[in-house]
Design goal:
It is a single chain. This protein is 46% helix and 21% strand. It has 152 residues and is α+β, with helices and mostly antiparallel strands. α1 packs across α4, α2 packs antiparallel against α3 and α3 runs antiparallel to α4. The chain is globular and about 60 Å long.
């Protein structure tokens, strides 16, 4: 594994942990500069095609899901590890439940379910883009739904 700090190609694994069923988190130390960094190893699964709203298909990209979640969680008290865990959970559910193809709205709903438990503000941010809120009333209705679910 190449060191992100000095580019040296040799490192040793200091610690390994399973973060979920498909991912292993490894803490590494560069043998040249001695700095530490973290890598994540994912099991490579059969490629999944995502069916978009316009019926076109594209390959499922874990990083695309992660980027959307990170944008929703920007300036929120959500750790990178929590984001990684959510992305892994979504990817795991897709690989377990769907063979070859999944509709994009299914992925969006999985992300929203995870964000709802993780951070309500991030959930609203993601939902406003994903569900394409047209006006303030749609936004307020979504907030009312959250409050109703919480029993407030």
């Amino acid at each position: 594994m190449q060191c992100p700090f000095c580019g040296f190609r040799e490192s040793k694994v200091v610690d390994s942990r399973h973060t979920d069923a498909n991912t292993i988190r490894r803490r590494r130390e560069c043998e040249e500069c001695k700095k530490r960094f973290t890598t994540y190893e994912n099991i490579e699964m059969t490629p999944i095609m995502v069916i978009k709203k316009d019926e076109t298909r594209e390959l499922f990209e874990r990083n695309k899901v992660k980027k959307g979640i990170m944008k929703a969680c920007e300036k929120r008290p959500v750790s990178i590890e929590d984001i990684e865990k959510l992305v892994s959970e979504v990817e795991y559910k897709i690989n377990r439940k769907y063979l070859g193809e999944v509709e994009s709205n299914v992925i969006g709903e999985m992300v929203m379910d995870g964000l709802k438990d993780l951070d309500e503000v991030a959930y609203i941010r993601f939902a406003s883009v994903y569900r394409q809120f047209k006006d303030i009333n749609t936004f307020v209705n979504e907030l009312k739904n959250i409050l109703t679910e919480k029993g407030e």
